[in-house]
Amino acid sequence: MLADRKYRVGVLGASGYTGADLVRLLIAHPNTEIALLTGERKAGMSLKSVFPHFVGYDIPDIISIDEVEWPAIELDVVFCALPHATSQDVIKGLLHSLNHSILDEMIVTTTADQANSLRSEVKVVDLSADFRLRDTETYAKWYGKAHDATDLQKKAVYGLTEIYRDDIKKADLVACPGCYPTAALLSLIPLLKAGLIKTEDILIDAKSGVSGAGRSLKEQNLFVEVSEAMHPYGIGSHRHMPEIEQELAVASKNDVTISFTPHLVPMNRGELETIYVKLEGNETPETLKAALLSAYENEPFVHILEGSIAPATRMVRGSNNCVINVFPDRIPGRAIIIAAIDNLVKGSSGQAIQNMNLMLGLEETTGLMQAPMFP
């Protein structure tokens, strides 16, 4: 891969919040050219008519996925910002063949030689949940349908960049973590790997801006429903739970069951997680913080705050940063970890571009060094 070349990039699902943030970040990326935008509900429209903040930029119009001429469009990277279950079928068409896809009629069929060419050349970064869970039976349990691309699941790399960097560099298919798992796992994995906290009684109280609920029209997301209020959802059954447990089990080499409750708060973007953990042996909040400082001392986007500064979403808004700090709990033998990210950047589109950079052999921080927006 050449660091000074332009890579042709496609965004499938560009009319959603995640897709829009991908476009926002890719516009300023020195090594990418946006060659394709798809969006079924907004097909035929210019992106600036869907998102007026893109006025003045030379960006392709949005088309339906059935209009895409695979593989003639010659993409280097495809970002899939599509709903779960849809991504696996589209990606299966890209990286294998278009046979047996539920979207057969939506994609122009390729020859076997063309499909093989796609397999070796196109890098795919999936932002849906379709390839995050290593066990396809677990996927079926939590998502209510069988996984239709089990062979690809075996090849997918979990895209938590700071933990799986070396694997991501060699991958053709990366499954980006969910926003809630990103903040939780960055906070907990180094501590479990070092044996500093117990695997039981991990409690995660998470809060996210309304953009995390997507852009589709839902009554519960109307202004009157979310303004001046905060409410929990997915209580005891949120689909990010098995994803968090999967990665914590890898880190601790033991099964882990968490308590996790997400809440929707009346802000556009941002995510804050307060995590309660039990300490092992004679460990203290100070040793936990020291372990996090050591784990992330050379990381460009994960920052352990000084002293007793509490992470807040205003510290990370619009950036690819994650800020973390550790505090003593008044209950002996426990500690409180707090983490903040922008759910659309480090929790989604920014992390996806961070992974793309690695997959293409580019400097990992390319296009992602924008400072947080404040106020």
From TrEMBL:
<dbReference type="InterPro" id="IPR023013">
    <property type="entry name" value="AGPR_AS"/>
</dbReference>
<keyword id="KW-0521">NADP</keyword>
<dbReference type="InterPro" id="IPR036291">
    <property type="entry name" value="NAD(P)-bd_dom_sf"/>
</dbReference>
<comment type="similarity">
    <text>Belongs to the NAGSA dehydrogenase family. Type 1 subfamily.</text>
</comment>
<comment type="pathway">
    <text>Amino-acid biosynthesis; L-arginine biosynthesis; N(2)-acetyl-L-ornithine from L-glutamate: step 3/4.</text>
</comment>
<keyword id="KW-0028">Amino-acid biosynthesis</keyword>
<feature type="domain" description="Semialdehyde dehydrogenase NAD-binding">
    <location>
        <begin position="8"/>
        <end position="171"/>
    </location>
</feature>
<protein>
    <recommendedName>
        <fullName>N-acetyl-gamma-glutamyl-phosphate reductase</fullName>
        <ecNumber>1.2.1.38</ecNumber>
    </recommendedName>
</protein>
<keyword id="KW-0055">Arginine biosynthesis</keyword>
<dbReference type="InterPro" id="IPR050085">
    <property type="entry name" value="AGPR"/>
</dbReference>
<dbReference type="InterPro" id="IPR058924">
    <property type="entry name" value="AGPR_dimerisation_dom"/>
</dbReference>
<feature type="active site">
    <location>
        <position position="179"/>
    </location>
</feature>
<dbReference type="InterPro" id="IPR000534">
    <property type="entry name" value="Semialdehyde_DH_NAD-bd"/>
</dbReference>
<keyword id="KW-0963">Cytoplasm</keyword>
<keyword id="KW-0560">Oxidoreductase</keyword>
<dbReference type="Pfam" id="PF01118">
    <property type="entry name" value="Semialdhyde_dh"/>
</dbReference>
<comment type="function">
    <text>Catalyzes the NADPH-dependent reduction of N-acetyl-5-glutamyl phosphate to yield N-acetyl-L-glutamate 5-semialdehyde.</text>
</comment>
<dbReference type="GO" id="GO:0003942">
    <property type="term" value="F:N-acetyl-gamma-glutamyl-phosphate reductase activity"/>
</dbReference>
<dbReference type="Pfam" id="PF22698">
    <property type="entry name" value="Semialdhyde_dhC_1"/>
</dbReference>
<dbReference type="InterPro" id="IPR000706">
    <property type="entry name" value="AGPR_type-1"/>
</dbReference>
